[in-house]
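User: Could you go from structure to sequence for me? I need the amino acid at each position, not a summary. Structure tokens:
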């Protein structure tokens, strides 16, 4: 979903996650170690994993918004999305 300001909400959540990881990493770094080096090492994983994921999701969101402008496409999409959990429940129940 796009926020009112036009910035993707998933991207905002990723930034919060990365900043939270930096703060959490700073709490457990011993005082005799170069803090910037350890923080950079710990932040590497969230940045490498979450930023590309958020960018991909934002691009998919924009494409889906354009695609679902038609009422017919929107209706088909909604029916498909509603049938997926029902189908999953049926498959799980049959096991």
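Assistant: Here is the amino acid at each position, in order:
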């Amino acid at each position: 979903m796009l926020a009112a300001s036009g910035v993707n909400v998933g991207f905002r959540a990723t930034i919060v996650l990365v900043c939270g990881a930096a703060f959490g990493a700073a709490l457990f770094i011993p005082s005799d170690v170069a803090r910037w080096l350890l923080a950079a090492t710990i932040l590497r994983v969230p940045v490498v994993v979450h930023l590309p994921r958020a960018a991909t999701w934002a691009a998919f969101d924009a494409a889906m918004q354009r695609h679902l402008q038609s009422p017919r496409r929107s209706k088909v999409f909604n029916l498909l999305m509603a049938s997926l959990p029902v189908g999953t429940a049926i498959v799980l129940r049959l096991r």
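One structural detail worth keeping in mind: The two ends are 36 Å apart (CA to CA).
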